[in-house]
Design goal:
This protein is α/β, with parallel strands linked by helices and 221 residues long. It is 23% helix and 21% strand. It is built from six helices and eight strands. Strands 4-3-2-5-1-6-8-7 form an eight-stranded mixed beta sheet.
Length: 221
């Protein structure tokens, strides 16, 4: 079965919108290109691991359209040559033509479509951007790895990737990590199991704690 890696450029407050440039997203987002000041040679290694190797892209429609308008005209860049050559799987409900070469539509229910794709023969899959995929794929357990590239900036508003769904609750195991001199943190995480809990309490609760818990349970907190 293919593995799916979700890779995300994120701010400290979880925004992933328009990291590459001011013109990337014309929907009123004020901080397009917010990752640019933090890129330096120290990120070449982690980015090389992420974008090197054998994989196919798994994209939402909006990220696909951004990529399809840019990368065919920037094939002189190494990653442009890669993206242009490999297969692109696009989760979309639109009937618009997918004109970028080697593009394939995944229609219908996203979870069912991606499940079939995972079960098919082929290279592993890499998600780039595509914030709308995560709320569907994370609760379904379809994402095997996360590569979170976190930049030391808070953007206040913008598209986020979190799945607000109890089914998304799970633990992730740190596989590797690195830090850049400018404060960028790269964490590679593998999907693990159920969330484990515990308590730091060293003795029975006080009367005040019991009263507070009762108020909480009654919705009077």
């Amino acid at each position: 079965m293919r593995k799916i890696t979700g890779s995300l450029f994120q701010s400290l407050d979880g925004v992933i919108q328009a990291p590459g440039g001011p013109e990337e997203d014309q929907t009123g987002f004020a901080h397009g290109g917010w990752t640019f000041p933090y890129f330096d040679a120290s990120l070449a290694g982690p980015m090389g691991k992420l974008l090197g190797g054998d994989y196919e892209l798994l994209l939402g429609r909006r990220t696909y359209e951004i990529f399809a308008a840019y990368w065919p005209h920037n094939a002189e860049q190494p990653i442009g040559a890669t993206f242009n050559a490999i297969r692109k799987h696009v989760v979309t409900g639109s009937d618009a033509a997918l004109d970028w070469n080697n593009s394939q539509r995944l229609a219908g229910d996203p979870v069912a479509a991606v499940t079939r794709l995972k079960e098919s023969a082929g290279p592993d899959l890499l998600i780039q951007g595509s914030s709308r995929l995560y709320p569907a794929l994370l609760p379904a357990g379809l994402i095997d790895r996360l590569v979170l590239i976190t930049f030391p900036v808070m953007l206040g508003r913008g598209k986020r990737w979190y799945a607000d769904d109890p089914a998304a609750a799970r633990t992730w195991t740190l596989v590797e990590q690195s830090h850049s001199p400018k404060g960028v943190h790269v964490a590679v995480l593998a999907r693990d199991g159920a969330v484990q809990t515990g308590s730091f309490a060293s003795k029975p609760p006080s009367a005040d704690e019991i009263a507070l818990r009762e108020r909480q349970a009654a919705g009077r907190w």
